[in-house]
């Protein structure tokens, strides 16, 4: 029997049992081996009946969603020495650990009971007050703490929008390209996604209007400021037009805004939320999602959603069934952090560091890849969105190039999964957030070798 006992290595249990049964058949020459052999036979019969005859049947809504191709790529990132431009994470070195530690201490010293207890689904009052003031500082004049709910990251706000607004088969307009998790999330609720084209100035409003007129969508989802993955910045003129379209077509616009604070030089135009005060009626057709993830810490999972009262009430009801409320401890911590007045210095620091890295990446791409790549230098956010031109016979397909790049020790995300339809196969997304300037230069040099 020696040698026939290959350990079960996590593959198909049934395959392993069958293989082991075959191998032990001829070797059953001792009592112990015979017992082992028949034990395997019984286990095989049991698993065959249990796992094959009754496969788990999942909800049909999952048929619309696939595991993202990006996740598959992330599995390769463990390779030693790889320089990654693939993630969408902020740099952990940017986390204001001292400030957050002080905020944790303040929460436990001044309100341990509330910070460690169940809380209101709408959010911790002290945090809602701080966030209202934070948004006021960005031009949102008329926002009361009751005008929004705190969510578990802005991702939950998007999920609540899907849950409350989308019935199977309904249409939703998104940008092409857009945030991958939103594509997955809205599809989970059965949405038919329609892509509106964008350029460096954000969604092309004439095309958006034509699509709204043709499809009469349930809502339009936009990332107007430094989009993920596009980095695009919706111009002031287009912002006003989007708000007018919301009123004209009586259609909800969802503004997802986790990157608006991450600008490098000039501040971007005000958010749609801030501008809605100047476009009569538009506030009733606007939902706005915000987040502390990209500027303070994604681990806190503090986001929020501003929306018309009826939508907010439905979303609050759905949140109750989902997680009851966002961690009171995280909310109290965030409230104390904002109250301590540390945010402006933190923002100034992250803007400066990311601006240097964005510049370094842009310069290196121009130097190392030249004509083979086309991109607009980002003015904020975390990403360079680029297209391979194929100039001089260089790589033209983003997915193919990603594989070659990993072989050369550098990773990025190909662009096609970010499209709900008609993907641009030559596109790629490079994050400049987590590598320092020297690593960015080194990584882009490796990209040049992979061309
Ligand atoms: C456009 C966009 N929206 C929403 C989110 C979700 O962020 P969080 O749930 O951490 O607030 C992200 C995160 O990458 C994002 O890029």
What report would you give on this structure?
With 451 residues, this protein is α/β, with parallel strands linked by helices. It has 3 domains: 2-52, no CATH class; 67-94 and 345-450, Aspartate Aminotransferase, domain 1, CATH 3.90.1150; 97-341, 3-Layer(aba) Sandwich (Aspartate Aminotransferase, domain 2), CATH 3.40.640. Helices cover 45% and strands 14% of the residues. The protein is built from 15 helices and 14 strands. It has helices spanning 13-25, 31-52, 69-75, 97-116, 125-136, 153-165, 180-188, 205-215, 236-248, 272-275, 309-322, 328-339, 343-369, 398-407, 437-450, and strands at 83-84, 148-152, 171-176, 192-199, 202-203, 219-222, 252-256, 286-291, 302-306, 373-375, 383-388, 410-411, 413-414, 427-431. It has an 8-stranded mixed β-sheet with strand order 2-9-8-7-6-3-4-5, sandwiched between helices. A 4-stranded antiparallel β-sheet has the order 10-11-14-13. Strands 1-12 form a two-stranded parallel ribbon. It is globular, with a radius of gyration of 26 Å. The structure holds pyridoxal-5'-phosphate (PLP). Pyridoxal-5'-phosphate binds next to helix 6.
List keywords for this structure.
alpha/beta, Aspartate Aminotransferase, domain 1, Aspartate Aminotransferase, domain 2, 8-stranded mixed sheet, 4-stranded antiparallel sheet, 15 helices, 45% helix, binds pyridoxal-5'-phosphate
Summarize the structure.
By secondary structure, the chain is of the alpha/beta class.
């Amino acid at each position: 029997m020696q040698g026939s006992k290959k350990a079960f290595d996590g593959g198909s249990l049934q395959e392993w049992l069958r293989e082991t049964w075959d191998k032990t058949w001829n070797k059953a020459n001792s009592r112990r081996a015979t017992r082992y052999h028949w034990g395997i036979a019984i286990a095989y019969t049991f698993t065959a009946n249990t796992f094959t005859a009754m496969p788990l049947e999942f909800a049909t809504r999952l048929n619309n969603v696939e595991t993202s191709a990006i996740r598959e790529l992330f599995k390769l990132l463990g390779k030693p020495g790889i320089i990654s431009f693939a993630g969408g994470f902020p740099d952990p070195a940017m986390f204001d650990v001292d400030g957050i530690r002080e905020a944790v201490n303040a929460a436990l010293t001044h309100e341990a009971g509330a910070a460690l207890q169940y809380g209101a689904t709408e959010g911790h009052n002290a945090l809602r007050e701080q966030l209202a003031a934070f948004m006021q500082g960005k031009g949102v004049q008329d926002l009361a703490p009751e005008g929004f709910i705190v969510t578990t990251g802005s991702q939950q706000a998007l999920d609540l929008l899907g849950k409350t607004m989308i019935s199977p088969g309904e249409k939703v307009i998104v940008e092409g390209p857009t945030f991958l998790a939103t594509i997955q999330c809205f599809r989970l609720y059965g949405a038919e996604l329609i892509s509106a084209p964008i350029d460096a100035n954000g969604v092309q409003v004439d095309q958006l209007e034509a699509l709204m007129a043709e499809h009469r969508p349930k809502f339009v989802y936009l990332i107007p400021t430094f989009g993920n993955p596009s980095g695009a910045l919706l111009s002031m003129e287009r912002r006003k037009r989007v708000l007018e379209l919301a009123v004209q077509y009586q259609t909800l616009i969802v503004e997802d805004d986790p990157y608006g604070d991450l600008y490098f030089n000039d501040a971007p135009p005000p958010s749609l939320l801030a501008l809605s005060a100047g476009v009569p009626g538009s506030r009733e057709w606007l939902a706005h999602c915000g987040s502390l993830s990209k500027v303070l810490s994604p681990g806190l999972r503090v986001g929020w959603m501003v929306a018309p009262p009826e939508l907010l009430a439905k979303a609050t009801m759905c949140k109750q069934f989902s997680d009851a409320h966002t961690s009171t401890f995280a909310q109290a911590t965030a409230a104390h952090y904002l109250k301590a007045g540390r945010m402006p210095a933190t923002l100034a620091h992250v803007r400066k560091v990311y601006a240097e890295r964005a510049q370094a990446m842009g310069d290196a791409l121009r130097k190392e890849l030249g004509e083979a790549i086309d991109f607009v230098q980002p003015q904020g956010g975390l990403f360079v969105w680029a297209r391979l031109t194929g100039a001089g016979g260089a790589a033209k397909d983003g997915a193919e190039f990603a594989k070659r790049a990993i072989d050369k020790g550098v990773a990025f995300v190909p662009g096609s999964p970010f499209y709900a339809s008609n993907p641009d196969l030559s596109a790629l997304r490079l994050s400049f957030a987590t590598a320092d300037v020297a690593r960015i230069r080194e990584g882009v040099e490796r990209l040049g070798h992979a061309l």
